[in-house]
Design a protein that fits this description.
154 residues, 77% helix, mainly alpha
């Protein structure tokens, strides 16, 4: 027999889980906006800043700021490998304020500079998957992994 308080916690947690999942597409649609910040997302959630971040981390396996950064890098890596667009354009399209900032973060997560990444992965799905394995295994949250692999299928 469950205690009434337990039911209330379960219902509350399901509601917050739904809020997190409902915000993911909005975050995805707004990744190119360099002004999107944790504060923007938490305000949109309707929950307190720290409470939402705590719930997000529990549900997604990483904090909100990291999630946003990883999704931006993930999308940018795909563009670097599978388009001929200028690196600066890709950086700006993915919400980075400068090419230097983009290159620094790209190298931090993928352990390779964007220009070298492009040379080694250009239109080569196998090479792309191999080099991005570190990003998948060590950084990307579960749902973000799914979104990343969906990008490959486009």
């Amino acid at each position: 027999m469950t205690h009434p308080g337990e039911k209330m916690i379960t219902v509350r947690s399901k509601i917050v889980d739904t809020v997190v999942r409902d915000l993911l597409p909005w975050i995805e649609d707004n990744l190119s906006d360099e002004t999107i910040r944790v504060k923007t997302v938490t305000q949109r959630s309707g929950y307190g800043h720290w409470h939402f971040q705590r719930v997000f981390r529990v549900q997604m396996g990483c904090n909100l700021a990291e999630y946003i950064r990883l999704r931006r890098i993930s999308k940018a890596a795909f563009s670097v490998a599978f388009t001929n667009r200028d690196i600066l354009d890709i950086a700006i399209e993915n919400g980075f304020t400068s090419q230097q900032n983009f290159s620094r973060i790209f190298k931090k997560y993928l352990l390779i500079a964007p220009t070298i990444f492009r040379k080694e992965c250009s239109a080569q799905e196998v090479a792309f998957r191999e080099i991005t394995r570190n990003l998948h295994e060590n950084h990307i949250c579960q749902i973000s992994k799914q979104m990343f692999f969906n990008e490959l299928r486009k």
